[in-house]
Amino acid sequence: MSAAYIIDARRTAGGKRGGALRDWHPADLGASILDALAERSGIDPSAIDDVIVGCVSQVGEQSFHIGRNMVMASSLPDSVPAVSIDRQCGSSQQAVHFAAQAVMSGTQDVVIAAGVESMTRVPMGTPVILPMQAGIGTGPWPASIKQRYGVTEFSQFTGAEMIARHYGFTRDQLDSFALDSHRKGAEAIEAGAFADEILVLEGLDREGATIRHDRDEGVRGNATMEGLADLKTLVADGVITAGNASQICDGASGVLIASERAVKDHGLTPIARIDHLTVTAGDPVIMLMEPIPATRRALERSGRAIGDIDLFEVNEAFAPVPLAWLRELEADPDRLNVNGGAIALGHPLGASGTKLMATLVHALRARGKRFGLQTMCEGGGIANLTIVEAL
Length: 391
Known about the structure:
- It is a single chain.
- This protein is α/β, with parallel strands linked by helices.
- It has 13 helices and twelve strands.
- The strands form two sheets. Strands 1, 2, 3, 4, 5, 8, 9, 10, 11 and 12 form a ten-stranded mixed beta sheet that branches. The protein has a two-stranded antiparallel ribbon with strand order 6-7.
- Helix 10 runs parallel beside helix 11.
- It is globular and about 60 Å long.
- The protein starts with a strand and ends with a strand.
């Protein structure tokens, strides 16, 4: 079976809701990543066999096949096909899996896995809200599903609260984790740790003037425990707040994956190798716990121990998720989200998978480390897990 190599991994800096990226159409935002991957890798764009794009809210400006529209908005030739996929927050991580599987099977040689989400222009929940407002249908879950699981709806906020209660995490513990995410993010920005992964774009400041958008807008280096403590919980008697949950974010990201044959034929220089791919599913009600069994299965199948992994990227959808993961896996917290996570840097839904991959691969190389593990909790109780080897 052919190896799957990562040739390049790029992302935009995160934009806050209504922030620097507010004027970017999602197709143009995603196209900028496609162009950047082709240009920096030196690949002939016509050699790209496919583009696989993750996007969660495929409605409005992200509808009518956002993947193909990204190709059409880019400099890639019309001969490059594309597909749009939705595995909720893991959409573009699944795009990486599909791309790697295509390359490893020998059916394709050069594939871009990418993701895009403009949470400003296509707000979270829009695909559900619009039909309901128009009086069309009853929502995504029929009565049969609600009866089976004994719920009226499936909520990640509820799942996060359930995890916190299960492990006895206090509000202070969650806020402390969030504060650490902001600290690490701010330190990474000041150290230039994201320079190799961020594609610099033109953005807008608050007054509408053009600015250089090259840093994640959501990072608050001056955050304090007192400030976090002042935030209201999302549900009564809960512990989850906007401060210890991931930030709404606009962004795009992508990874160029190639076979060994393509590396030789096109003179490409790999920066990492896909080492292992796993996806699992479990309880759709608590839903956010699945990275734990996914990690256990991946370690068993890959023959590795948690101590063999140098860096971890566990998406910070809500603080209880990575905290529970650390406890169950008995993992080293100093290896987790070393440049901050989604609480500070933002969570652009469909773009987060390849966003985290870009950060993980570049962090491994910057530190001279070898193996990295990335996992993501996803709606419906699913989790992707990817292990990469930096080169």
